[in-house]
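Annotated sample (chain length 118).
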Amino acid sequence: MTAHPADHDGPTIPRPEKTFTALHAALAQVAPSRLPEMTAERDTVFTMATQHNSFGSIAMFQLKWATVIEVERLPAVARRLHAAEQAAQNAEDREALDHAMREIREIMDHARAQVAGE
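Output written by the structure step:
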């Protein structure tokens, strides 16, 4: 039997460039259900950038979605994140919630560092 990309823990796609086109194409492959969210956020961010003549919000948009894609392109990491998100939603006490939130923060911080080149 041939293994499918999602059956292993390596990347399912290469890390995309931080351009809207590349991020959009990558998200379509790893988390297509999030495309409407990305598009709506892009519209808001680009409008804000134009109104304030500042491109900082666009850079933050690119970093956010590159980070999301970094997690989702690594099946084991994505499973860890989704399990921690579920644990946070179902936490019945502060300790369980804190543990889940630390896990989420650790995963996202690591992914952000990877795409930011830190």
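Annotation: The two ends are 38 Å apart (CA to CA).
Annotation: DSSP finds five helices and no strands in the chain.
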